[in-house]
Amino acid sequence: xxxxxxxxxxxxxxxxxxxxxxxxxxxxxxxxxxxxxxxxxxxxxxxxxxxxxxxxxxxxxxxxxxxxxxxxxxxxxxxxxxxxxxxxxxxxxxxxxxxxxxxxxxxxxxxxxxxxxxxxxxxxxxxxxxxxxxxxxxxxxxxxxxxxxxxxxxxxxxxxxxxxxxxxxxxxxxxxxxxxxxxxxxxxxxxxxxxxxxxxxxxxxxxxxxxxxxxxxxxxxxxxxxxxxxxxxxxxxxxxxxxxxxxxxxxxxxxxxxxxxxxxxxxxxxxxxxxxxxxxxxxxxxxxxxxxxxxxxxxxxxxxxxxxxxxxxxxxxxxxxxxxxxxxxxxxxxxxxxxxxxxxxxxxxxxxxxxxxxxxxxxxxxxxxxxxxxxxxxxxxxxxxxxxxxxxxxxxxxxxxxxxxxxxxxxxx
Amino acid sequence: xxxxxxxxxxxxxxxxxxxxxxxxxxxxxxxxxxxxxxxxxxxxxxxxxxxxxxxxxxxxxxxxxxxxxxxxxxxxxxxxxxxxxxxxxxxxxxxxxxxxxxxxxxxxxxxx
Lengths: 413, 112
Ligand SMILES: Cc1cc2nc3c(=O)[nH]c(=O)nc-3n(C[C@H](O)[C@H](O)[C@H](O)COP(=O)(O)OP(=O)(O)OC[C@H]3O[C@@H](n4cnc5c(N)ncnc54)[C@H](O)[C@@H]3O)c2cc1C
What we know:
The complex is a heterodimer. By secondary structure, chain A is an alpha+beta fold.
């Protein structure tokens, strides 16, 4: 590597390389059609091509690649969930994330920071201990720590007892990380396209062709496309697209908002989350403070921002970091997230044969991009749902076997 | 500030209210199958467009119905539940039919 770098440095010219190969016209038939060109759809396309040699694949997006929630999330990656199903699943994603820049030959700026979930009540301390024990049992590094240790990790945090909700402890998860979300989508897209996958932007799926309970293809704004298998990966639009295929989902679409401050010198290494105060914060590589909280209180299919969100968020943030009162908010935005009642995803087969689903990613799906792509590709290629994701089946709701992650996912994303 | 026109309290800040979800007529718990019950408890139409929902004014403990456009975020009309429900809905299932399914729904439904 250093020699290659030296050679590169001594070159006279640096011709720009196209990131995506030029795309052909949309064909009328493919082996696999993927609805939704977010991180999940693109990752699935990549692993279909790489792991299974399935390259007759078209990814269709009604907007632009990675322009949905993939572009809007706050990029938190962690595996400190509450249920064994969740912990195992997200731990595999972390393992894939760590190698991702190398695998895709594209820097996704994976940055391990450590993740703190603050506990301000006895109940929250109990949940932290519970999560730490489940995590450790499954080989995931998490522990319950107390204010003296928290102070060492985040010296700027207000640990005073003279506040409305004093900090009693925290769940500390050293592997917690952030990564550049756009790069994840672009890296998967380019690596998939190099293997022959087609990426078609501004193609909206408007209907799903079916006969005898089987999916045959999709209607799009650019004509009918027939295919052998379909993967739906459209996050906030999950219920709308599933309705085209003729089934319902346990999903409610709600905006989730976030904002960033003006850039500051680096002072905050770990990601800090407070469930009781409905806020979380991390500092990006550019120095901006990335801040967010809970989903909006009611469902809307629009990515608008509200003053209420910022007022609530910032009031709580100032309790944790009072000195931020002087700092300005630079940007704000929202995404439409697909919330499930148990805060776990819906993955695998559907009532329609050959039609697969990857949905219910709510506020927590960015970290799952590699693992869901890999495991959905396996499902589509082999026709068998791997054990790791089988429990996330749509059918669990008909068996009253929810996978309750609310305690680990409602604010910390 | 978004305003919710409450049929009981008049126009109030929407932060005083809780959205209770789509108005769905429950199947008869004594007679329906577990699948029908699960469908009622968990599955949603999640419409992009005009929806009819339960809303609750917290301070006065008052449930009512709102018609709302989920794409434009506009509240179209609000009215008392009595416009839709003229008869009392009875939820008590006969002894032999009250199994796990029914109690799950009570825990996560939370709607009148
Ligand atoms: C503010 C915010 C903060 C978040 N923070 C975190 C976090 O810190 N950590 C974390 O793990 N997760 C987080 N999330 C959640 C995460 O962003 C999502 O779960 C994840 O990005 C979903 O990826 P996706 O590829 O499934 O969906 P998307 O990236 O939304 O992609 C879906 C694509 O489908 C396309 N589409 C929709 N309908 C159609 C159609 N009919 N035809 C064709 N294409 C269609 C859309 O245009 C879109 O590009 C956050 C989300 C938001 C909004």
